[in-house]
User: Which sequence fits this backbone?
């Protein structure tokens, strides 16, 4: 058996002949050649001549062979499932009994799900669409605070890739220059007042062009590429994000604390007038004042009255 990750590591470092590789892995040269052909189909550019094979370019695809050896986490992503196409990574994660920290990533989702039954458009090879399975066993009272952790970690990670106007839209979207860059669909299982399982579905628009979004989304959705005018390495973003999520998650499990002040300072529309929608109906409007320690939103509806919002979608249309 040829260990793909070992073969890739070797060929990234130096040129090796079929004979040398066959010796290292204890197989035939034909088996080596078959593996090289497979790596080429995955997108690895491999130079070959009389002296041997050498990888000259890695695919910027979050393949297990690229992600697993580069992961700097202790448990998130160690069990990693990669699909070229799937209906929805959240659905897959829900349908299987996967270990804590499993990550399911797809290049394309045929039925990507957004919040409130909306669709999530997943242009192939352009974004990051994945789900993380977590088994926190925390009291359900922490759920809304806890749900903010994922957009917050993502926000901090994406800050490393852009200096433009990045914001957290309550309760859980990331906006860049006033348009949606990332969304989160968090599905929870609760037993005896404990959050036993969370499926954290994350969609990030990385290298989409305008034509990758349906026309009606062009005014409201964007990608890092569209705002920065250059391509980004999806692998680099994913690796940093999994690392940051694991760090924040591990701290939260111990302390149940999240830096709500920092989230508040980076809220979209802070100090501005917004409307709150529930099931498509406008239920309230007021000025965004900030967040409570449990993650709920404080809205000033008139001079004397503040309302606390636990659920809903914000909009600046009224
Ligand atoms: C939203 O903004 O409404 C939430 C979008 C969540 C999209 C991600 S993509 C990976 C995961 N699988 C899904 O079907 N949805 C989430």
Assistant:
């Amino acid at each position: 058996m040829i260990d793909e990750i070992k073969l890739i590591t070797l060929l990234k470092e130096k040129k090796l002949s079929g004979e040398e590789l066959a010796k290292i892995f204890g197989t035939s040269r034909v088996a080596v050649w078959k593996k090289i052909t497979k790596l080429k189909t995955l997108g690895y550019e491999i130079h070959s001549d009389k002296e041997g094979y050498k990888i000259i370019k890695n695919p910027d695809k979050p393949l297990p062979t690229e992600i697993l050896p580069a992961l700097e986490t202790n448990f998130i992503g160690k069990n990693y499932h990669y699909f070229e196409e799937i209906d929805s990574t959240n659905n897959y994660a829900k349908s299987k009994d996967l270990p804590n920290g499993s990550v399911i990533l797809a290049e394309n989702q045929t039925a990507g799900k957004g919040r409130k039954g909306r669709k999530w458009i997943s242009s192939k090879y352009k974004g990051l669409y994945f789900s993380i399975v977590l088994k926190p066993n925390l009291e359900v009272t922490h759920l809304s605070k806890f749900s903010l952790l994922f957009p917050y970690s993502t926000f901090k990670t994406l800050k490393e890739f852009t200096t433009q106007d990045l914001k957290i839209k309550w309760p859980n979207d990331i906006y860049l220059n006033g348009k949606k860059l990332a969304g989160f669909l968090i599905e929870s299982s609760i037993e005896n007042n404990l959050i036993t399982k969370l499926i954290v579905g994350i969609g990030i628009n990385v290298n989409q062009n305008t034509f990758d979004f349906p026309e009606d989304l062009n005014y409201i959705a964007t990608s890092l590429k569209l705002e920065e005018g250059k391509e980004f390495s999806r692998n680099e973003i994913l690796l940093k994000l999994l690392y940051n999520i694991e760090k924040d998650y591990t701290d939260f499990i111990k302390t149940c604390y999240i830096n709500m002040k920092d989230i508040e300072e980076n809220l979209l529309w802070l100090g501005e007038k917004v409307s709150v929608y529930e099931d498509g109906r406008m239920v309230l409007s007021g000025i965004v004042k900030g967040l409570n320690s449990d993650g709920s939103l404080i809205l000033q509806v008139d001079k004397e009255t503040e309302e606390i919002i636990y659920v809903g979608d914000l909009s600046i249309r009224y």
In short: The chain is about 30% helix and 30% strand. The pocket of biotin is lined by residues 88-90, 109, 112-115, 118, 120, 129-131, 173, 183-185, 201-203 (CB under 6 Å). The CA atoms of residues 176 and 215 lie 19 Å apart.
